[in-house]
Amino acid sequence: MDCAPPVPSASIERHVAQSVPLAIEADLQGADYLNFAAADTAMERPSRDLMAEVVHGVSVDDGATGTDTLRSINKAHRLLGYTPDST
């Protein structure tokens, strides 16, 4: 399956703008990888249903319900206090 590269959006820009001050002000050492995203999707269908239809054979974390994001933002929340302010 060919996939187009992600298209920047105002939503992505908001999450990045929200996360940068948190990262700068955090009392952390070294480097790490974090996901910054909305806590949910803009889709009407449940995330699990969409994954089952589009990406066959991929398991979805049991914690994902409804239209929850499929990109874990838990680490960003734990390390930086990141809580998205928009969808």
How would you characterize this protein structure?
- The protein has helices at residues 10-25, 47-54, 74-80.
- It has 87 residues and is an all-alpha fold.
- The protein has one domain.
- The longest helix is centred in the first third of the chain and has 16 residues, at 10-25.
- The model has no long low-confidence stretch (mean pLDDT 85).
Key traits:
87 residues; 0% strand; mainly alpha; single chain
Question: Which range best describes the helical content: under 10%, 10-25%, 25-40%, 40-55%, 55-70% or over 70%?
Answer: 25-40%
Low-confidence stretches: none
Radius of gyration: 15 Å
Please tell me the total number of domains: 1
User: What is the count of DSSP helices, taking H or I runs of 4+ residues?
Assistant: 3
In short:
The chain has 87 residues and is mostly helical.
How does the SSE layout of this entry go?
Elements: H1 10-25, H2 47-54, H3 74-80
